[in-house]
Each structure stands twice: as C-alpha cells, then as structure tokens.
Specification:
This protein is mainly alpha-helical. It is 75% helix and 0% strand. The protein starts with 7 loop residues before the first helix and ends in a 7-residue tail after the last helix.
C-alpha cells in the first residue's frame, strides 16, 4: 500500500459519497412513504399492499425500501398517537380537514421525532417541509413547519 492510499485527502474524498448517500436514500424513502400513505389515505387501499406494489414498481435501493417500510409500518403502528399530536399542535384543523399531503408529511416527521432516535430534529422538520412544498399546496410548507414547531416544543426534554 502506498502512502497516498492513507493520506487524509484520500480518506476524506472517499468518505463524502457514503455520508451524502444516506440522506439521499432517506429522502427517497420519505418520498416513497408519503406516496404510499397518500394512496392508502385517499383510496382506503391497504398500506401494506400499496407499499409492496410501490417497492416492486419503483425498484428502489434496498436501504431506501427498508427505510420506507420502517416509516410506513411505524406510522401504521403509532397512527392514533401521531394523529393526536397533530390535533394538539393544530387544534383549529381537524385531522380529516388537513390536506392528505400535509397530514402524511406531518405523520412522517412526527414518527421520526417521537420514535426514531437517529434523525435529528432539524432534519425531520426540514424533510417534512420539503415534502409538503414539493407535493402540497402553496402554503403547505409554512403549515407543516408551524405544526412541527409546536410538536417539537412539547417533546420530552425540550426546555424551550
């Protein structure tokens, strides 16, 4: 092995793609999960069938499929508690009257905030806001950001 193989520059440049790939895979997984949750919400199709069909047709990276599966399964398992968080944070907006995109972007973020220890708060919020902006209405990003701000204020251990 040459000295060049162990140089800090070589290590840094080889580290960058792997560090950057995980967020992109998770972003893709969140997008896939949003699409699955949206379809299940709007059509009353079983989310498991929608997820399997979507994974089969999209053929995402295995890590992306696994994280999308984790999100959708976790949201299904904790849906009542997650929806209650939304209702408490946005009492003027009954859960059924929130747009399906906004509602499901919120569910994804709240699941990551409450039940996932490896997603930083800012990342969960930013990713949900970006999903809402990309797939929702004109004010979706602001709405999702505001609701999540209230949710974060009520997280255990948040002293703000």
């Amino acid at each position: 092995m040459s000295e060049r193989d162990d140089s800090p520059e070589e290590k840094r440049s080889s580290d960058k793609p792997s560090r950057r790939r995980k967020p992109n895979l998770r972003r893709q997984a969140r997008t896939l999960a949003l699409q699955v949750l949206y379809e299940a919400d709007q059509t009353a199709h079983d989310w498991r069938e929608v997820l399997e069909r979507s994974v089969e047709s999209e053929t995402p990276n295995p890590e992306t499929a696994a994280y999308a599966r984790l999100l959708t399964e976790g949201i299904a398992e904790h849906r009542k508690a997650i929806d209650r968080e939304i209702e408490l944070a946005a009492p003027a907006f009954p859960i059924g009257q929130i747009s399906p995109v906004d509602r499901n972007a919120l569910r994804i973020a709240i699941f990551e905030l409450r039940y996932s220890s490896d997603v930083p708060v800012k990342v969960a919020i930013n990713e949900a806001v970006e999903l809402a902006k990309r797939f929702g209405g004109e004010s979706s990003g602001r709405f999702v950001n505001g609701v999540l701000g209230t949710v974060v204020d009520r997280l255990p251990g948040n002293d703000s």
